Prior knowledge:
Layout: H1 4-14, E1 15-22, E2 36-46, H2 52-61, E3 72-75, E4 81-86, H3 88-97, H4 105-114, E5 118-119, H5 121-129, H6 142-152, E6 153-161, E7 164-174, H7 179-188, E8 191-196, E9 202-210, H8 212-219, H9 234-244, H10 252-264, H11 276-280, H12 294-304
Antiparallel strand pairs: 1-2, 2-4, 2-5, 3-4, 6-7, 7-9, 8-9
Helix pairs in contact: 1-6, 3-4, 4-5, 8-9, 9-10
Amino acid sequence: MLSEKYLAGLLDSDGSIQLMWNPPMRRKNWDGTGPQRCYAVVRFDQKTPDQSFMRLVADSLSPPSVRGTWGNLSTSPSGTHYWRVAGTKAAGVLMRLKKFLVNKRNLAEAAIDMNGKIMDVTAGTAQFDAARRSPVPVRPTRKWVAGYIDGNGSFDVRIPRGMAGQAIVSVTDEEVERAGCDLLCKAFGGSVQEFVTPVGTKMVTWVLSMVPSKIRSVFEADKFGVAKHMVLKTDEIYFLLGCAKMGHFRDGERIQKGLYALRSGPHRLSGPGADVPKFLATVRDVPSFMGPGAERRKRQWDAAHP
């Protein structure tokens, strides 16, 4: 089962908390105006190869005392799998997760408070929207970071110059829910960049460039150790950690190709499953080439170590 802290991070990234409105009683020829009853709705989405991960989310949040699984599991036309739960069950989910949430903590509390009440739709929607911003906690938990990166994060390798690579982790979210990105920046460094999508949506991205020692301190060492709590991107992060154990990312091109293969293959977003050691075996422990004639010595070394 998935931990509540991990699920809170996942809900903060690729999940949503919404409201559903229904009239307090069924009335013939109802015109949709006047007071309506409010219901909380919680939804988790992931474009995974099948529903197994989303079923794990649903099972982790359904009380063990009930038979079966709460809510509805379904798949959108685009291939995204989702689990949706509403009403009292949604409020129960939020009661379990709210203390671990970052982006949606205030939103969860508002949804719990409004669930089941009869109120004016316009006033209720305004009250709910006003709760979208949450204060940034002092520090993140490791499991929350794992869930948040699994949901909205990505890993990349850039080759700014020469053959040396540069590992990157980034997380993108809407500007109105930037608390998570701000918290990651506060905890690990990097920068938070703002941008606007072509349709006018304000977004933010947390970006952290990592040397081998940095990626090991964040994802491997006892201080943080985020990797062991991840589910969806474990192959990618353990590949990068394996490369980091060399002490450098000098074979940037092969590291980049290995990461892209893990991201584009059948194991993308499916958790453990790829043959990570096979990809690590392609990465060379390249020596350092510095000073005059470095490019020539690099070419000679490449020719001798194809």
